[in-house]
Design brief:
Shape of chain A: globular
Oligomer: heterodimer
Number of helices of chain A: 7
Distance between the termini of chain A: 24 Å
Shape of chain B: elongated
Structural class of chain A: alpha+beta
Number of helices of chain B: 3
Radius of gyration of chain A: 19 Å
Strand order of the largest sheet of chain A: 1-2-7-8-11-16-17-18
């Protein structure tokens, strides 16, 4: 029997599922876990640990285990994507107009001065001390974990829930899956059609893995008449100029899937598909602006 | 009196030449134009989903890449709808038909792999969706 718990956190709809009887007690606690993580990791809360860290530069700051773990996830993402996905682009995303929770964002802003931004620095510019668990931000660098935090949270929640039974957690589209369902079958997961959100475009059948989608179809707005979105290309320090509308990636875990989807999105359909195909752990579905749908070879295993 | 029959003969020759030219033109038109049209008609309605390009060697470190999407041919794709004027019937029908096949395929796989059996139709209905986060 599938038990579900839906709630809102981190500016997104969340869903936790456990496939067992009776209802697992920990299912009701999932929103509390997300609240705790959001209080540490949100850049929109003035009293979050991340906000406080971003106000201190050139000095080591001891951080909580949660923030430390997410920083390690971000470092992995940066390594995996050769620097395309990095949490050091906070200034660029704010200059693009994403300076408050998306639900509060005016969909059109006018007459904003063009941003003057320094070139982004990689996460390796941040000094970390493993034994003391401290982080030292260089001047001009602030962190925004964004999707990395959501993927990490989904991963953590599933790790806790799987003690009780086969589990799935969907954190605003970033999905972590513990393993097959109780009857041994895979979990059927739909890919939302970005042109008609009530429809699903494909159905994937997944076991232990992560799946995530990145795209410009939802979190977007207009600034000075120009369409903006939330995925920043570190090469330009601006929203990625790409022919892709969304990228969905299946990977061994949801954090890797999230990072890979973002990297492929930034690279565009041709280079992005080559990048995915060169990594046997990854499978992807690309939906282009013009409506074309591309599958990587490995994706055939999940359809 | 003797020249009149000769003029009528010249008119006949002109008429014959014109007729032959028209017949030849029409013949050539039929010969070359019709098959090409037929090929076009046959080629259009068979969009086929073809997996993407074969695996390629790892890309160079992509930071600062000039992204040149247009310079090489994209892999063959299925065109499911258009952005400007979505063909809703096409969009919806095609994925759903494919989905049914996939569900069936998946169900077969499950039973072959000795999974728990069970599930049936309910197992094929998506429990959730992934979307841009």
């Amino acid at each position: 029997m599938l038990h579900r718990h839906e709630f809102r956190a981190m500016g997104s709809e969340m869903l936790a599922l456990v496939d067992r009887d009776p209802t697992p007690a920990s299912l009701a606690k999932v929103p509390e876990w997300f609240e705790e993580w959001e209080q540490v990791l949100s850049r929109f809360r003035y009293d979050s640990e991340l906000t406080r860290l971003n106000q201190i530069h050139e000095r080591p700051v001891r951080v909580s285990k949660i923030l430390w773990d997410v920083l390690q996830a971000a470092r992995n993402a940066e390594r995996l994507t050769d620097g395309l996905v990095t949490p050091t682009l906070l200034d660029a995303i704010i200059e693009a107009g994403y300076d408050r929770p998306f639900d509060d964002l005016p969909h059109q802003t006018q007459y904003m001065a063009d941003p003057v931004l320094a070139a982004p620095q990689p996460l390796t510019a941040v000094t970390v001390n493993n034994s003391a668990r401290t982080i030292t931000l260089p001047s001009g660098v602030s962190l925004d974990f964004g999707g990395i935090a959501k993927g990490w949270a989904a991963h953590q929640a599933v790790k806790r829930l799987q003690v009780e039974g086969p589990a799935l957690v969907n954190a605003g589209g970033d999905i972590a899956i513990s393993g097959p369902r109780a009857d041994g079958s895979p979990w059927p997961i739909g890919i939302t059609n970005p042109f008609q959100r009530k429809e699903e475009l494909e159905a994937l059948f997944l076991n232990a893995c992560g799946v995530a989608t990145s795209g410009k179809d939802r979190r977007r707005w207009t600034r000075n008449g120009i369409l903006q979105h939330h995925i920043i290309d570190p090469a330009t320090n601006q929203p990625a100029d790409t022919d892709l509308l969304t990228v969905t990636v299946v990977a061994p875990d949801v954090m890797e899937a999230e990072a890979a989807a973002k990297a492929a999105f930034i690279l565009g359909s041709r280079v992005g598909l080559e990048w995915i195909e060169a990594r046997p752990r990854l499978a992807a579905v690309f939906i282009l602006d013009n409506g074309q749908v591309l599958h990587s070879h490995k994706m055939e295993e999940f359809l | 009196m003797a020249t009149k029959p000769a003029k009528r003969n010249w008119d006949d020759v002109q008429t014959a030449i014109a007729t032959a030219a028209i017949v030849t033109t029409l013949g050539m038109w039929n010969l070359f134009a019709t098959p090409a049209k037929a090929e076009e008609v046959e080629a259009v309605p068979t969009p086929e989903k073809v997996p993407a390009q074969p695996a390629l060697p790892p890309a160079e470190p992509p930071v600062g890449f000039p992204i040149d999407v247009g310079s090489a041919a994209l892999p063959k794709v299925k065109i499911m709808f258009t952005q400007i004027a979505p063909q809703t019937t096409t969009m919806v029908q095609q994925p759903q038909q494919e989905k049914k096949k996939r569900k069936k395929k998946n169900k077969d796989n499950n039973s072959n792999s000795g999974g728990g059996g069970g599930g049936g139709g309910e197992a094929a209905a998506p429990v959730t969706q992934t979307q841009s986060s």
